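Example 4.3 (complexes with small molecules)
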Amino acid sequence: MAAPERTRVAVVGGGPAGMFLGLLLARGGIDTVVLEKHPNFLRDFRGDTVHASTLGLLDELGLGSAFAALPQRRVDSVEIQLDAGTVRLADFGRALPGLHPYVAFVPQWDFLEMLADAAEHEPHFTLVRSAEVVGLTRDGGRVAGVRWRDYAVAEPAAVEPAVAELAGVKRSAAEPEPAEHVLAADLVVACDGRWSTVREAAALVPREFGSPVDIWWFRLPRHEGDPDGGVGRLSGHEFMIMIDRGDTWQCGYLLAKGADAALRGEGLDAFRAKLARLQPWLADRLDTWPKTLDDVKLLDIRVERLEEWHRDGLLLIGDAAHPMSPVGGVGINLAIQDAVAAAQLVGQWMRHHPGPVPADVLSGVRRRRLRPTALVQAFQRAAARGVVSRALKGQVATSRTAVPLPLRVLTRFPILQSIPARFIAIGPRPEHTPSWARRLERMAPR
Ligand SMILES: Cc1cc2nc3c(=O)[nH]c(=O)nc-3n(C[C@H](O)[C@H](O)[C@H](O)COP(=O)(O)OP(=O)(O)OC[C@H]3O[C@@H](n4cnc5c(N)ncnc54)[C@H](O)[C@@H]3O)c2cc1C
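Answer. The structure with flavin-adenine dinucleotide bound is encoded below.
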């Protein structure tokens, strides 16, 4: 669909933050256009987690039944398999007595399509797919809109978009460049993720906190009788996570930053042997999977944060403002909480005032979300350095008898499992949707 030439809010990126924000603002009667560079939401590499606090938001929006109808797996605890046995890190059932004492694993494309479907019922909402934002327009010093290219007209050569996106790969210069359009807006909100084009166009540079680890990301077939949900496995120098996606496992094999070339040099058979040693029940498929090491993608893990999340006419939220590491699987929830806070503050103001949004309203979003973001990123950094990186160096005891002390404490006092459970499933400072965005269920009750 072609975008209008003018709107009140131009949201760049239809990921979790962008789709949530678009839906909320449109429900507030604010004309909102979401520009998403991909033709659909069929991407991997984003994480499939939908946390208890997000599930509560969906209930507030009247989307609880629509979400419940999606194919999903519900995980009520987080466990890690050591050589000495399985240790429970977080018990959601104990910590979250409400309606959703679990984290749901849902293919992210289904989740985003559900949000798009709900938003497209709103007369003030427009989603333009295959629309890549390439720059900003200005009116004096103020950001006054975006420049975007319509790839629905000239679809570029097929790339694995998620891989390109996570690796920061720009489109190839050989691909045809369709004509540029301009969308003028009172406010541009950058929700375009960790490699944000808008952030770069606004000359905003995030502070880097670094990460001692990267991930090899690949899929394996999932067979009848395999475990359900998420699986974490730590043994010797090796750490792997596996995310249950129905008929496939999305696997993440952690490696020290910079170790990619050496590991690849060991070859495919050596890697398959490591996997079989870590998870012997995978052995029945490792003769043929992964097919080649080209199917094993290196994902560059980074933790970064902007000092300022706004400019005149521009707001940045989610990974565009603070790229998250996958540690703990919490970035999606945090991005959605940012979107809800932005709707509360900025949406509320825009409902009652025409024209551009004042700086103190825009800066309120960072004031509200900085602490929870900093806290979650501090946890991710501590976990990456204190556990994952040490484990890869073989400094975490995982022998048949030794369980690391913090894990022994969690096992000895299960009540303590509520703390990581609440941190993961709810997160610090959970938000609530504005009353004007709420709806009663529009589908049959569960
Ligand atoms: C390997 C890996 C695994 C992860 N696993 C998990 C997990 O299991 N659980 C979890 O909670 N978090 C996970 N995370 C973190 C999580 O992916 C992010 O924190 C979260 O997706 C941020 O949401 P967002 O909406 O801000 O950005 P994104 O999800 O990155 O969405 C950005 C959107 O903008 C679009 N876009 C980008 N550029 C443009 C442009 N120029 N024009 C138009 N559209 C554009 C993109 O196509 C995309 O749809 C993981 C991260 C990594 C790197």
